[in-house]
Design goal:
Elements (H helix, E strand, L loop, with lengths): L2 H4 L3 H11 L28 E8 L6 H8 L3 H7 L12 E9 L13 H15 L4 H15 L8 H5 L2 E2 L2 E2 L2 H5 L8 H11 L10 E3 L14 E5 L2 E4 L6
Antiparallel strand pairs: 1-2, 3-4, 5-7, 6-7
């Protein structure tokens, strides 16, 4: 898996939680509490370390929205940056205090994975695996990220999910429109787990339900494992 995406940390969980509106994340607009409101995902270790990161203000940003994105209070961020009011400017560097860091690795900047891409990954997981176990949901997300690191596939989450050959999309939820369903909380958590490097498939690049799959070719691929109703496979080895 692409090393960049192995180091995605809990802050991305906060970002997608706020974007999707599924986690019920709340921010005290003028609060002075010290809690940063870390999010723990099923199957992951609790956060064991805390640090601060810097965020460069972009055009259109508001201090309130940045607080929501990083789940810190307005009071915290104003104190950390010695701000007298909530006025901020493009290219201004802000300290984001006490951001939780996952044991999977270090925090990356928000530019590495957009909130839109994270939510799209959660949507695909929900559409493809909403009847599966949490591990099965993480596995579907892991396949997307494994493709990013493999030759022959696009190099972004969005491009992989929306890829099509001869007018047929790689993933049926994109074809039938179910990709547009709002993901549930567990699918969001599964996306975060996959982004943080968890891969129950052991490196799979394909998955399918053998009961309903009509593609004969995909059933010829070397199988790595089966999780729930999905078989996970890799590329055929050339001889």
């Amino acid at each position: 898996m692409n090393k960049k995406y192995r180091r995605i940390a809990t802050i991305l969980a906060v970002l997608v939680a706020v974007t999707s509106g599924l986690m019920g994340a709340t921010v005290a607009a003028g609060g002075t509490g010290d809690g940063a409101g870390g999010l723990e995902s099923e199957g992951s270790e609790p956060d064991r370390s805390r640090s601060e990161i810097r965020y460069t203000v972009k055009s259109g940003d508001t201090l309130y929205q940045i607080c929501k994105d990083y789940q810190v209070s307005l009071g915290q961020i104003m104190r950390a940056n010695n701000l007298k009011d909530n006025t901020i400017f493009p290219d201004q560097s802000l300290i984001i205090p006490a951001v939780s860091i996952s044991p999977y690795g270090m925090v990356l900047s928000r530019g590495d994975v957009s909130r839109e891409d994270i939510k799209l990954l959660a949507k695909l997981i929900y559409a493809e695996a909403r009847g599966e176990s949490f591990e099965g949901k993480v596995a579907v997300g892991a396949v997307i990220l494994n493709r990013m690191a493999s030759p022959g596939f696009p190099k972004s989450i969005r491009e992989i999910i929306l890829e099509k050959n001869n007018y047929v999309y790689q993933f049926s939820p994109v074809q039938d429109g179910s990709i547009n369903l709002e993901p549930d909380e567990e699918s969001v958590k599964a996306a975060i787990e996959a982004l943080m490097g968890r891969d129950p498939t052991g490196g799979a690049l394909f998955f399918y339900n053998p009961v309903v799959a009509k593609d004969k070719w995909i059933k010829t691929l070397p199988v790595i494992t089966q999780i729930g109703n999905h078989v996970f496979a890799t590329k055929a080895t050339k001889v």
